[in-house]
Design a protein that fits this description.
7 strands; alpha+beta; single chain; 2 domains; elongated
Length: 144
């Protein structure tokens, strides 16, 4: 069996940064030490902090993000865990999603299933999608 998830260091760092930003947005004295933050600025900092805390909580609770064994593939799709038997997995490949208007490039692992593609980002996997795709595809072909 093989598993992939974000490292605990990354989850802890995200949680600490989120808690700090949430506190900075909520406590006026702390916000004043960081610089001149007005009301909307404090609100924005608080929202970013809350978002980071939610992301860290999801990464901590939804572990592992991808688990592969003889029975198939278990992965986290948003906040739901899904089990896919090998018969439902058509192909596993790595690629890059590109948003040309903003020049954003996200490396992803795409699991093509009979129901449609499922994607996991490099951040979700905690590893390079290319390596993960090679390993999963090798296991899938061996167990066919």
């Amino acid at each position: 069996a093989h598993t992939w998830s974000p490292s605990w260091w990354r989850v802890a760092g995200c949680a600490l940064a989120g808690a700090f930003l949430l506190a900075a947005g909520a406590v006026g004295a702390l916000a004043a030490r960081l610089g001149p933050l007005d009301g909307p600025g404090r609100l924005l900092v608080g929202i970013v902090g809350a978002g980071l805390l939610l992301l860290a909580g999801r990464d901590a609770l939804a572990r592992p993000a991808l688990h592969v064994d003889q029975g198939g593939v278990d992965l986290v799709d948003g906040i739901h865990r899904r089990h896919l038997p090998w018969a439902a997995v058509l192909r596993v490949r790595a690629g890059t999603l590109t948003r040309s208007r903003r020049a954003v490039h996200v490396r992803v692992l795409t699991v093509e299933t009979i129901d449609g593609p499922l994607m996991l980002s490099r951040r979700q996997l905690g590893a390079e999608p290319e390596r993960v795709a090679e390993t999963v595809e090798e296991i899938r072909l061996r167990l066919r």
